[in-house]
Design goal:
- The protein has 186 residues and is of the alpha/beta class.
- It has a single domain (4-184), classed as Rossmann fold (3-Layer(aba) Sandwich).
- 31% of the residues lie in helices and 33% in strands.
- The protein contains 6 helices and 10 strands, in the order αββααβαββββαβαββ.
- It has helices at 4-11, 27-30, 37-50, 66-76, 129-140, 158-165, and strands at residues 15-18, 21-24, 57-61, 80-83, 94-99, 104-109, 117-125, 144-153, 169-178, 181-184.
- The protein has a 6-stranded mixed sheet with strand order 4-3-7-8-9-10, with helices on both faces.
- A hairpin with a 2-residue loop joins strand 1 (15-18) and strand 2.
- Helix 1 packs across helix 3.
- The chain is globular, with a radius of gyration of 16 Å.
């Protein structure tokens, strides 16, 4: 599995400050600048290579997990479900609070039922705020977490987050910000 084009594209990502948080801007995480289809293909192939898609649903939080979930659904034949930032008020809707390194918001889960086997996919794990909110809510709902996969790992706390959530988080590329630049570690 080659991830060279993905890695090179990450290394050229601009860093912006949101408060004290170092936020990198990349097509996988933000949809800007434009997404190179080869980078998306490498990311999806990487997720397919490491992930468990023997599940009922691929679940992803809005927004940047959506292109990943769609491509994975098309390749695996497994339906996808989006955890939305918008309240619909449907029967069984579950609201969860999300706190990241730069924002707070509500997320809404619909259409997931007790006993559903789900693989959670996302673009990046950084503070763990989004993943924490989604995984804990899914568990409270009685869903079985089959796998958790993110393209990019931007945290030194992954093991701590895994222990807290009781899941293993698989990632393709690990990065960190050093002296105002995004550096690919693996």
């Amino acid at each position: 599995m080659t991830l060279e084009k993905l890695k090179r594209s990450l290394e050229s990502s601009p860093i912006v400050k949101i408060g004290t948080y170092d936020y990198f801007v990349h097509p996988v995480t933000d949809g800007i600048p434009r997404m190179d289809p080869e980078v998306l293909e490498q990311a999806v192939n990487g997720m397919l290579a490491i992930g468990n898609f023997d599940c009922d649903l691929i679940v992803t939080p809005e927004a940047m997990g959506i292109p990943l979930a769609v491509a994975l659904s098309q390749r695996t034949g497994v339906p996808y479900n989006i955890v939305r930032k918008k309240r619909y008020g449907l029967d069984g809707e579950v609201s969860v609070s999300q706190v990241t390194g730069y924002s707070k918001s509500q997320l809404y889960i619909n259409g997931i039922h007790e006993g559903d086997k789900v693989t959670v996919v996302d673009d990046v794990i950084s503070t763990g705020g989004t993943l924490r909110a989604v995984v804990l809510a899914l568990k409270r709902m009685g869903a079985e977490i089959v796998d958790v996969i993110a393209i990019i790992e931007k945290t030194s706390r992954k093991r701590e987050i895994e222990d807290e959530l009781g899941v293993r988080i698989k990632t393709l590329v690990k990065v960190e910000v050093r002296k105002g630049k995004l550096v690919v570690i693996t």
